[in-house]
Sequence to fold (228 residues):
Amino acid sequence: MIKNEFIKFFTPLKISIYGGIILIFILLNDVLFADKASAIVTFHTLLYNDISSLIFMLPIILSPIVSDMITRDYECGCMKFFIIYKSKSKVLLCKIISLILITGIMIIFTFTILNVIYIFKDSVQIDIFLDIKMGLLFLTALMPVLLIYVLISILTKNSTIISLLVFLLIVMSDFIPKTIGNITPRRFLWECLLKNQIDKFSIILFSIYTIVLVFLNFKLFNKKELIH
Fold:
């Protein structure tokens, strides 16, 4: 099942589209419109500056990917073939695992391009351990967003648009009272990832988001009529 999702995603067309978007975004951000360094640059500052932009870009790219994997499979009738061989819970579990793996691959691809630019443009030494740490932290911080996208894809046909609107609401939570904004998934991207402020409250909140969203996703998916 996971292999099937990989075959469906890693087609020449999709690789060109998503890979091209990431490459163009990085070239625009780090090469064409990069600010001139006023001080000595380090790998740490370069990576953190880029991640501050990537926390907007990657979730936007992930929205149609999640929608395509869940909503489109339902709409085109593919889902009924999956449940012939596996239970609904196993089907959804494989799709979520596939999404996590695809997101991880996208982060690795993005960091690889950034590292090449850092070496040839900025002449800095790459810290592979910081790369791995930030990559894993980035993937973890995106988990609640991914699970929210999955929930929306289960509930609605226009999941891509709604997912984007929900994400924009999350990232624009400065317009929401601070007490509410601090408990949205934005906290994991801004506070935990960018500011490296991982406290007990953040861990508890992350656990609550994960448990509740996983429960809702499986509950609703099991109740959903998959024969469209």
Remarks:
- The chain is about 80% helix and 0% strand.
- Residues 1-223 form one domain.
- The chain has one domain: 1-223.
- The chain has a mean pLDDT of 83.
